[in-house]
Amino acid sequence: MLAAERRDLLLARLQRDGKLVAKHLAAELELSEDSIRRDLRELAALGLCQRVYGGAVPASRAAGDYATRTDVEPGSKQALAARAVGLVRPGSVVILDGGTTTLAVARALPRSLECTVVTHSPTVAVELLTHPGVEVLLIGGRLFKHSAVTCGAAAAEAAAAVTADVFLLGVTGVHPDAGLTTGDADEAAMKRALAARAAETYVLASAEKLGAASPYAVLPLEDVAGVVTDGREHPVLAELAARGVPVLWEAERGA
User: Fold this and answer.
1) What is the reported pTM?
2) Residue 213 near residue 238, CB atoms below 8 Å
3) CB 81 within 8 A of CB 230
4) Phi and psi (nearest 5°) for 234?
5) Residue 150 in 3-state DSSP?
6) Which of 128, 155, 181, 202 could cross-link 214 (Cys pair, CB 3.0–4.6 Å)?
């Protein structure tokens, strides 16, 4: 089998199975694991997969810059936001992560809602200017322009003073094996710092993030109270539910 044919086979298997295990592929194709790993490196360099220990998983389409992500799956984000707003209770303190999905949640909050929102996203803070009953606490720090959020030591120190009821977490990948991931190490650390300050963390997973992964781990799936998604069928959702991770739209559908 030619190298190009082998890489086409790997991509087809990745789309079908949601992951590639180098050891199993090497045995099946009667090749060395080094040959398979070399193919995976080349595919990862082209942005066609995300390498993980022992193999690879699909690369997230949500890893582009902020402007690019605004146009990715807008309908999915709006449907997800309609479900996520139910997690924001009157009188509560909620941490809203940065990103285009949490911005959709901010836009979906009722104008009559009274609560406190803590965020490290200037765009989320600006969106909430038109919500008279929402007190906004904006965490300062170094502005990470790729995602339009603040990160770094100053932001983490400010986050340590927060105590919240719920954290609505945005990531770029939700995968049963790779867990919750994003594309920048400092941003991942900031997300962990915010999660540590909330009683419950829910991850917001629009369609393009399901079954995909990015380079940096945020949290393992067992550390979140649930996954909020837009309600479309996806094989990853069934696997998450089988592992005991609550998927909110399934509960609503069965109600």
Assistant:
1) 0.81
2) no
3) no
4) -155, 135
5) strand
6) 181
- In whole angstroms, give the CA distance from residue 78 to residue 206: 9
- 168: β partners: 96, 202
Rounded to 10°, the helix 22-29/33-45 angle is 120
Q: Is 230 exposed, middle or buried (0-12, 13-18, 19+ CB in 10 A)?
A: buried
Among residues 18, 44, 59, which one ends one of the domains? 59
* pLDDT at site 252: 47
Token digits for 48? 């066609």
| Three-class DSSP category at 59 | strand
220 vs 194, 233, 240, CA distance in Å?
15, 22, 12
State how far the Cα of 140 lies from the Cα of 125, in Å rounded to an integer. Answer: 12
Rounded mean pLDDT of 17-26? Answer: 86
Q: Mark whether 202 and 77 lie in a shared domain.
A: yes
CB 103 within 8 A of CB 87: no
> β-pairing, 173-175 with 164-170?
unpaired
Same domain? For 199 and 217 the reply is yes
Neighbours of 25 (CB within 10 A): 22
* 48 and 7 Cβ atoms separated by less than 8 Å: no
pLDDT tens digits for range 155-186: 999 999 999 999 999 999 999 888 999 999 99
More confident residue, 39 or 196: 196
